[in-house]
User: What shape does this take?
Amino acid sequence: MSGQAPVALRAEGLTVVTRRSDGREVALVREVNLVLHQGEALGLVGESGSGKSLTALSLMRVLPESMRQQGTIELGGLSLSALPEERMRQIRGAQMSMVFQDPLTGLNPVRTVGSVMREALRRHRRMTRRQAHEASVAALRSVGIPSPQERLRAYPHQLSGGLMQRVMIAMALLHQPAVIICDEPTTALDATIQAQILDLLQLRVASASLILITHDLGVAAQACDRILVMYSGVIVENGRTSEVLDNPRHPYTAGLLAAAPTLDPSRPGMIPIPGSQPAPLSRPPGCAFAPRCARAQARCHREEPDVTTEPSGRSYACWNPHD
Amino acid sequence: MSPPNHPAAAMPAGTRMTESAAAQEILRAENLRAVFRLGSRPLVAVDDVSLVVRRGETVALVGESGSGKSTVARALTRVQPLAGGHVYFEGTDITALSERALRPVRRRLQMVLQNPYASLDPRLTVQRIVAEPLLSHKVVAGPQIPDTVRMLLDEVGLGPEVARRRPANLSGGQRQRVAIARALGLRPSMLIADEPVSALDVSVQAQVVRLLARIQELEGLSYLIIAHDLALVRQIADRIVTMYLGRVIEEGPAAEVVSEPLHPYTTALLSATLTSASGRRERIVLSGDPPSALAIPAGCAFHPRCPIARPRCAAERPPTESAGDRSVACFYPGELQLRPRMGSPPSSTAQGG
Assistant: This one.
């Protein structure tokens, strides 16, 4: 996607803080800056504990009560950060919606798919039951669900994981939101079903902008225009998908690429990164990746790296990047 | 890194296979069948599955949910009762052995599970977790236990301080290392591992895979690895056995199966295997879900989702044909190929499902 498309969502200085039982405050996400253009699919990539899911929840302002967020969020020019919760509720689901890894979370198991969808529709729009039913049928059909009438009468557990994830995407799209955030939407699915869901998401990006949170660089490579790589609560690299994957600047991005298994016999693949990501409380001084980094220099252990931005717009936070 | 000393396991008497076959093969499954009952309806989870693991070899059993791969693993370790077929381990038919006669087999044939969160008792320290099988199989005398546990932890790259911790205070990678240390304590000749790294982060996955490879090299272990990721499997396995809806549909050397799949389902699975290098390539996207094992289609079970299915595929079940060390159950093997990634027409979509 071109960089000239208007901005759909912008976040600046997004920080998520939690207070521990001993009273100490810990930042789980720090100073995340993010720009999502209209019609763009943006991948937020990182391993577990990198802060990628908390970043998504903070964009929706739905963090658990034990956490608080700082920083500004703008959705199509409207500032969300200071909006009263009541206004925010109108925006969630209508202008900005979310799809989770497990389609069964958040769904009442004793309510049919149809009843959940009708309620979601009538929460934001004046509609008769009949109109809501027809809109639900159309929504399921638009995501390629066969015999939608029948599916609406089903309970969530009666549908397969792939079908339920389609239902969740249909629900996320009900009100033509400007932005959809999908948190590991295909991680629980089989490979052939994952392929269907990624195809569906790519088709739908035409109408909504997409943030795709994933631990899987292969999924990001397939579905995203741009990639942000997170490590230990910080964005370490940001650029066009091809730039980041073909020529990573940050050693962590390069390490993730080398650690993944490959189908290409000419590449070694599965080269481990020694050690593991630090817990937020034991984050080392300087660059959090330095203790695992083969390129680390004395400075990396002392000073947190500045963000360098190249003319193409790609950026990275590293004192000793790859060329 | 010297292994603890254990008395050699005495194999119980059973049906012996021919000596030469037994020398090469560590595990042989013949015509396995496993059936679950859902109310009055039988669900055939595993149907006529045969496979062989040779000594020192890694075989990957690949398939999606409902393919029956985990049931095969459970049947091989006699956790899942069989409705038919035979399992030979180190030359002995273990299919009908009593629990008592199975004990030495269970020592030599260990299982490692996918989820180290669920498979380790959260109340116990790592010391107790690793020591427990040593005590229950009486392979190490009590006073030697702490030393043996320390050696086992060292073998999987964990320091002695880990012995005092409980699973909740370990990372996912550390837990899987503990599970492997526990399995290694009994000096098995074979490990069956059900998705051993799929719950781990990518950078840690590679660490655990390296560890498994190193142990195999040191001790000549044989592995049967249950997995769903063809890229991972290409890297770790000597041979791949692909299952679909309870049956083996393709088998062969890993590098060949991945570079030139014969069964259209393997081709589709390969096409759905995303790596950072695969980029936005054109793909074969199968429509629909796999059918339920309660309603397995007649003929070839894959035909409703198969992009190249013909009337014959719905009418007859394709037999397994072998050529060299490859085999496939398809009337039109090798016909469906992945197209070049650039400048090709949009992904073909199969009908049905």
